[in-house]
Amino acid sequence: MSSDPVTLLMAALAGVMLGLVFFVGLWWTVQRGLSTRHPALLFLVSLVLRMTVAVVGFWWVADGEWDRLLACLVGFLLVRLVMTRSSRAGRGADEVGNPAEERHAP
Asked: How far apart are CA 18 and CA 16, in angstroms?
């Protein structure tokens, strides 16, 4: 059974929200992981929590409909694309694509 466009749009927006939770959580984990006493534990707990939220969110949004699942996945991947591109844009041109050997003075 096919879902109507409004339902698919809502599923895509839910995917965006799940993506924001997942990738902002990842960013927070990396920032905190650099200064914590037990980084492995932090990364493990963060991974389990983020994956649980994402999987349960996808399951709930899809509700057994493949087109809702696909719309949710598109929203999730859109957030990933935007966040990875914006994180690259924040770095200087010398840091993108150049090996470390080319960035130091002779």
From this structure: 5
Token match 């996945």: residue?
Answer: 73
Burial of residue 67 (CB within 10 Å: 0-12, 13-18, 19+) is middle
Task: Write a three-state SS string for the chain.
Answer: CCCCHHHHHHHHHHHHHHHHHHHHHHHHHHHHHCCCCCHHHHHHHHHHHHHHHHHHHHHHHHCCCHHHHHHHHHHHHHHHHHHHHHHHHCCCHHHCCCCHHHHCCC
Q: What pTM does this model have? A: 0.79
Angle at 64 between CA 75 and CA 18, to 5 degrees: 25
User: What are the pLDDT digits (tens) for 42-51?
Assistant: 999 999 999 9
Give the torsion sign (CA, 41, 80, 50, 25).
positive
